[in-house]
Amino acid sequence: MKYIISTLGCKVNQYETQAMDLILRTRGHIPVGPGEQADAVIVNTCAVTAESGRKSRQMIRRLGEENPGAVVGVCGCYSQLSPEEAGQSGANIVFGTGDHQGFVAALERAVLSGERPEETAIDNPFRRLAYEELPAGAVSGRTRALLKIQDGCVNFCTYCIIPYTRGRLRSLPVEAAAKETARIAEEGYRELVLTGIEIASYGADLPGKPTLADVTAEIARQSGEMRLRLGSLEPTVITQEFCDRLAGTGKLCRHFHLSLQSGCDRTLKAMNRKYDTAGFLEKTRLLRKAFPGCGITCDLIVGFPGETEDDFADTLDFIRECAFSDMHIFPYSRRPGTPADKMPGQCTRAVKAQRAALAQQVCGEMHQAFLQSCVGQTLPVLFETEENGFCTGHSDTYVLVRVPGTQLRNQILQVKITGIDSDELKGEIVS
What we know:
Blueprint: E1 2-7, H1 11-26, E2 30-31, E3 40-45, H2 50-66, E4 71-76, H3 77-81, H4 83-88, E5 93-95, H5 100-113, E6 119-121, E7 144-151, H6 162-166, E8 170-171, H7 174-185, E9 191-196, H8 212-221, E10 227-230, H9 240-249, E11 255-261, H10 265-270, H11 277-290, E12 295-302, H12 309-322, E13 326-331, H13 349-374, E14 378-387, E15 390-395, E16 400-404, E17 412-421, E18 424-429
């Protein structure tokens, strides 16, 4: 059969999409080419915000209309949370965040039947005990591979719906992670991203309770010529020992994405976060000591219920003190079923938009300052794209770098940074 896959949301979804794509290809199925009609449409959905849900419904409808007669299959967090809405949007096969092998098999059965049978298979994610192992790799055409080492979350932050869509903590055993790393290293990838829903809790469910540092060190030993990059981290995992062990691998990229969410202690407590601003700031200092010149990025939610103007001003002051290299900024999104949805002091859409714009302005200033700090440095860059005689890729600090040249894709080269062009760095290859 010919198929098309669309992915919304995080790197975990991207990982699961590439795994399904690999499974489909190994079974002889073919992704559609330009202008071709698909026999099967797959939408891997997201539910982290209300907007994510809206985009998921929109994508289901659009791809169904563009591929009349195709079987439409939906999986991911949105369909786990709202299977009936997914079906009403045009999906024939509705799965959630588990059993991706079963999902692919259901699509195959539906296409081979020549009909459009309706099938819904939604489980209780909190009853999942086993980690679903899927093949690591990259979405077609990418140079950066993904390895999911963990699923689920039990932090239950008051704003977050994801624990209810992903269930309890489950980890990929260290031996299996090392084996997958060795396999994809042989395929020629130059960078491997370790991802999961909450990788800081890695191993708490496994015998012996191996840590994120343990599995990263073992992956590093099997990574060949690949450099390693960590996915989003809870700041609580960052200790002096953690930094020392990761720096000791010699393989880790100097970029860390931390889940901040607010720079106000009162708001952090209302969010049920497990740290305060003083503790968070200390984590950034540990990282910068162990990885000099590193880029530190974060997630920030503005307009959380009860957030006052003074609270938001504290947040702006705090993010300036942290000097992030970049940020992902989100206006708070109400998610029915979470404690924050029922909290008093809900901010208006206008207030949330205004605060997001102000935070984005500060972010832009910090990003430019970080770019300026890179000028004159020599950075290792993994090149990914080529256009009009220039090649572009990401530095180990996760900044886009552009150089004159051709045929550099999937190479890591040393680049002397000579200047800034908008939100990118310019440079010249030195080796």
